[in-house]
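Hi R.,

Here's the chain you asked about this morning:
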Amino acid sequence: MEKVSPCHTNTPLPLPNRPSNFLQFKHQTFFFKFPNPNLVRLRRLNCSVSDGTVPSSVGATDSSSLAVKKKAAEVSSELKGTSIFLVGLKSSFKTSLGKLLADALRYYYFDSDNLVEEAVGGALAAKSFRESDEKGFYECETEVLKQLSSMGRLVVCAGNGAVTSSTNLALLRHGISLWIDVPLDFVARDVIEDQSQFAPSELSISGSYPEVQDELGALYDRYRVGYATADAIISVQKVASRLGCDNLDEITREDMALEALGEIEKLTRVKKMLEEAARPF
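And here is the predicted structure, written out as tokens:
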């Protein structure tokens, strides 16, 4: 089925063989449907559209921002609107990287966890829903991924639910998936500031920094196999090593974006070579 770009549609996305009792959610030109109408109420879904306003990271220079945009322009011609899915532990670094990539590529940005939360009535409602009907919650996660994977020109920060089932992993194959591998202490800082970013079933403690790191380590081990199915790994440590940087805090989002765009370029070239090799003589 041909992918539908959200930039050019004002009608519901076609979902063949889907039940007719799905609720429909609309945000501007975006439409989402979810099963189980008794558990879901209409919400306006939020997305970010690339408009050139994504802030640079601390310490980034204008030249590095221009380098990202230049690289994105080079990659775009071969990418041809293919969506990008970012997996890995949730962090402010991963989020801002996703928005920067969307800005550089002129894509739309979505956070799949936020979509699920808004669809079921907000963070508190999502927490209650997950605790009372975990299966239903995961079905909503899958439905979000189905809708997003049917469109093009998206950068999606995917939650951990995206790597917990073969169905969801298959949906990520509709685009290019990147594992954003961020040091645990980066994530721990975020958690200390805002522990609501993780579900209680994933991160249940509210203790000291070392305790948070231990919990995050266990969470990382739990999902690592799923993260590793991504098409490429974008690692802060790897970028720091390549740049000869000893302090990981000095690695900017622009540095990571250039690494991500380089991997995307490699993947699109390999895909093109395979397609050409498969053509009959």
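One quick note: Confidence is low (pLDDT under 50) at residues 1-31, 36-46, 49-60.

Cheers,
M.
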